[in-house]
Amino acid sequence: MKYYNIKKGIFKKRENRFIAYIEINGKIEKCHVKNTGRCKELLVDNATVFVEENFSENRKTKFSLISVIKNNLFINMDSQAPNKAVFEWLKKGCLFNDLTFLKSEVKFRNSRFDFYAERNDKKIFIEVKGVTLEENRVVKFPDAPTQRGIKHIFELCEAVKEGYEAYIIFVVQMKGAIWFEPNYKTHPEFGEALKTAQEYGVNILAFDCNVGIDFIDIDKKIDIRL
User: What's the pTM value of the predicted model, to 2 decimals?
Assistant: First the structure.
């Protein structure tokens, strides 16, 4: 997926989950943060960031924060990017070469999954998780406890019991990761839920991304260690 009107800046402070202040060309600008997670390891003092300039008169902020450089790693931190990138990737036939139907945001029981797909006689639910947390080239999810994430996992298990195929795709929003693992330290229940899902037959996949100042594209499958 592509971004437009990219500006380089320096991170100064985060006011709340949605607003940060960025220095651009010597001027402090109010900026929308497109990730409501903690991101404390990314948004450090004077980090180099990249923002997308917007020209809509209806917006309260002129800029949107989309990526950051951390220890020479270029990391996309736009929480909307993984779904958009997966949609483009699926449409290209990168996961299924016989895809006949694809729809976003489809309800099943008490959950709304990111995608519903069909291929031949298979009906498929897909849930996407963006990954930005990295430690020594090991990437982890989540960066904060997520009961909603656990609910989605167990609903996917129920879908498998009813005859659907189910996938959880972790989109690692950077290159250079050695492997993906659940963040047991932050939310051990999430990791245990993933193990249960694997036993039920839910397909658990992780892919890294090519990331630049104005794009993010899904690239290669990486190892998962549960």
Answer: 0.94
Own/partner pairs for 21-30, CB < 8 Å, 24+ apart?
22/49, 22/51, 22/63, 22/65, 24/51, 24/63, 29/62, 29/63, 30/61, 30/62, 30/63
The sign one gets for the Cα dihedral 79, 85, 88, 89 is negative
Positions in the chain whose pLDDT score sits under 70: none
pLDDT of residue 139: 98
Contact at 8 Å (CB) between 63 and 22? Answer: yes
SS3 per residue for 170-203: EEECCCCCCEEEECCCCCHHHHHHHHHHHHHCCE
DSSP string, 108-143: ETTEEEEEEEEETTEEEEEEEEEE-EEETTEEEE-S
The predicted-structure confidence for 2-23, as pLDDT tens digits, reads as follows 999 999 999 999 999 899 999 9
**Cβ partners under 8 Å of residue 92, min gap 6:** none
HSE-CB of 217 using CA atoms within 13 angstroms: 9
Give the end-to-end CA distance of the chain in Å, rounded to a whole number: 29
Locate tokens 């899902």: which residue?
A: 197
Asked if the bond preceding 142 is cis, omega within 30° of 0, the reply is yes
Reported as a single tens digit per residue, the pLDDT across 143-152 is 989 999 999 9
Angle at 113 between CA 109 and CA 119, to 5 degrees: 100
